[in-house]
Amino acid sequence: MDWLFAPFEVAFVQRALWGGLLVSCVCALAGTWVVVRGMAFLGDAMSHGMLPGVAVAALLGGNLILGAAISCAAMAFGVSMLGRSKRFAPDTAIGLLFVGMLAAGVIIVSRSQSFAVDLTGFLFGDVLAVRSGDLLYLGVALVIALVVAVLGHRAFVASTFDPRKAHTLGLHPKAAQVALIGLVTLAIVASFHVVGTLLVFGLLIAPPAAAMYWSDRIPVVMVLAALIGGVSTAVGLLISWHAQTAAGATIAAVAVGSFFLSAIIAALRDRFGARRMGAASVAALAALPLVGCGSGESAVVEETPHGFVAGAEEMAEAQSRLIVADAGTGEMRVVDLLTEKVTPIDAFAVKAGSAQTHSAGAAPGAVQLAGDGRFGFVSSGGRLSIVDSGAWTVDHGDHRHYYSAPIRAVGSGDISVGGLSGAGRSSAAPGPSAAPGASGAPGPSGAAGPGDAGGPSGAPGSSGAAGPGDAGGPSGAPGSSGAVVSAHSDPVVVAVVSDAGETMVFDRAALGEGVAAEPRRIDGIAVPYAERLIVASAAGRVEVRGRDGAAGEVQPTTCPDPQGQAVTRRGVVFGCADGAIVVAQRDGSFVTEKIPYPAPPADRATAFTHRPGSTTLTALAGRNGVWTLDIRKKTWTLTPIADAVAVNTAGEGSSLLVLTRDGVLHGLDPVTGTETAHLALISGPVADHAAIQVDPDRAYINDARARTVHEIAYNDNLRVARTFPLDIAPSQMVETGL
User: Fold this and answer.
1) Which range is least confidently modeled, 27-41, 153-167, 284-298?
2) Among 220, 219, 567, which Cα is nearest to 372's?
3) For residue 526, what pLDDT is reported?
4) What kind and span of H or E run contains 382?
5) Which of 402, 409, 531, 605 could form a disulfide with 619 if both were Cys (CB 3.0 to 4.6 A apart)?
6) Positive or negative torsion for Cα 722, 724, 729, 731
7) In the Cβ-directed half-sphere of 626, how many Cα atoms lie within 13 Å?
8) Rounded to whole angstroms, how far apart are CA atoms 570 and 613?
9) Handedness of CA 682, 683, 685, 687 (dihedral sign)
């Protein structure tokens, strides 16, 4: 029976179940009257009438549930007012408002391409995203609905069957009609988060209609409708889990199916007699629990459910967050992009820029930040601190797991970044005994798999890379500041690269438990990939090593002067003096391929940016252009643009997002280089540490002078969707949770 109970062991499915049960109770109270009084058209119209309120709320960046409530209330008010007219039937008013509100919503939605993504959950439901706070609201809605149903029961019954007698008895049928419309409005607003505006009608009507086949007493119908709705929720979630279907739509489909099943059973009952059908029904119900147990063997229950991570909560969607750092003070904040909550990190725990930690040659207070998709690695004065953002994704290929955990500081600046004193560095690979987690088994941290390292790899200001023209580099030449350049991880290790050409390898499971031990150090740029470490040395040699750093297979293709690295779904990319190389695993073996520049470049790519998972990389080409590297097509494209300070793209076919020094954000066609949109975003000259982080829906740009992070809808003419004001200057920024 593990197939039956395993889905409900996951926290977000449990919340979805409770949310569905509460909604079923609310809909049972309102839906029964909708069915009894023949108000189905009204319920359908009001459910669709929510769309303009949701669209306007999304456009203004407000609360979508509040927008839905306002729109639905306006619809109810309009129905009540127009329904009093004696010139036409109430259905005419409902139909006009239905079409008008739906048309207004479609017009508003059509104004923004990005709404196609933003409003999907509100059109078709997002029951798996129900949060604990939503359950509280649903509980309050149920209490209100119960109070209205109990207090208005006599008036509802009387006005349903004889409005004149209700008026004679002083039951105020007009007030009862308004209260009933309010009850329906409450049910629709409460349930659209579960099944969406387009499917809420099914959950409102189907269970009460099915219950009508089994009883003709209104209180009993309400109880049966709540039970049918609750069973539909549980069965729908179960089917959705195993069949990988949309949860809200599946729940609505099961609810509608319950109506037809009730109709069929009632027809058979009427034809063959209640006693015989009752016995058959009891036999069927008795046999139902035996499904899946026919082998006679006891089911083996996993001690650890699939996807379980100790100390973390599995979520229904990616928990996108930003880690930002003030380059002057070292103070840090974590911005939750879903809840907009800003969490300060104890400055004394992560501040690495104090006078006591400065080393020779390091600029006081110069903070650099890199991210691997969960952790932020902060360097300053040759010291390293680590912050756990508490958000990450595990990609299993055919499905993903999203996790949330407490935000905390892991390290406190007690780890030295290599390249200053040379302590702990080794030109030869360390022995296997030094490998943390070298067994190859995924650690309990639930880290993202290969190719899922979050954040751009070596982006200027984004992951701490030195910008073009900065001193230092992977060769460890004089002038290296001991700054982190990039961070990548797999389920076992995290590799953090410094501008001195050294890689620090951490045990990711230990970091997930809050322990930052002294890392192993490898001379060269090392990137985790396919349970190996791909290492590019300063001399240009590319080698595939084990996770323990032991010497491995040297690749025939070299990479002179490696600078810039990225992990994509097609392999690991290293930027070289003559182009780029891609190291990939194919049929169990590793192959390398060179993608040369089309011509000797005046300004090579030294730091790549890209959307996690994308095979299209971008990089600055000095100050007069940007590079686009398409791994799939194996091509470089140079797009001229003056004074570029940051660049990124959402992937193949998407516009290039380029921020220039005058603070203007440009959208450029990746093929022709022509400008498709522009936005004056930042006032005054932009510093070199500006960053553009891109995820599947939005782009984020830090504005250190205004102490703000801007959220950009890059598919909607660079519209500013939201702004996040901060109490520090967000000089450095990485995104996690993807």
Assistant:
1) 284-298
2) 567
3) 95
4) none
5) 605
6) negative
7) 33
8) 9
9) negative
At what angle are helices 247-272 and 173-195 packed, to 10 degrees?
120
What is the residue whose two structure tokens read 């089309």?
598
pLDDT tens, position by position, 495-535: 999 988 899 999 999 999 988 888 999 999 999 999 999 99
Rounded Cα distance, 167 and 152, in Å: 14
The first and second tokens of residue 183, run together, are: 């009850």
Indicate the residue type of 153: H
User: What amino acid occupies position 128?
Assistant: L
Q: Is the pLDDT of residue 339 over 90?
A: no
Which comes out higher in pLDDT, residue 582 or 55? 582
- pLDDT for 684 equals 78
109 secondary structure, DSSP code: H
pLDDT of residue 328: 82
Pair 575, 562: CB distance under 8 Å: yes
C-alpha 104: how far from chain center: 29
Alpha-carbon distance of 106 to 85, in angstroms, equals 28
Q: How many Å is the Cα radius of gyration of the chain? A: 30
Residue with tokens 């004074």: 643
CA distance 460 to 666: 18
pTM above 0.90, yes or no: no
What residues have CB less than 8 Å from 78, skipping those under 6 apart?
93, 97
Beta-carbon contacts of 421 under 8 Å, excluding residues fewer than 6 positions away, are 359
Question: What's the CA gap between 480 and 366, in Å, rounded?
Answer: 13
Q: Can you spell out the DSSP letters for 415-446?
A: EEPSSSS-TT--SSPPPGGG-TTTT-PPPTT-
How far apart are the C-alpha atoms of 261 and 245, rounded to whole Å? 21
Torsion of CA 129, 135, 138, 144, to 10 degrees: -170
Rounded Cα–Cα distance for residues 657 and 670 (Å)? 10
Q: Could you write out the three-class secondary structure of 688-729? A: CCCCEEECCCCEEEEECCCCEEEEEECCCCCEEEEEEECCCC
Sequence-separated (6 or more) residues with CB below 8 Å from residue 648:
456, 459, 609, 610, 611, 618, 656, 657, 692, 693, 694, 699
First to last CA, the chain: 33
How much is the pLDDT for 165?
A: 64
Task: Look at strands 656-660 and 664-668 and give their pairing.
Answer: antiparallel
d(CA 398, CA 403): 17
pLDDT digits (tens, 9 = 90+) for 686-710: 887 899 999 988 999 999 999 999 9
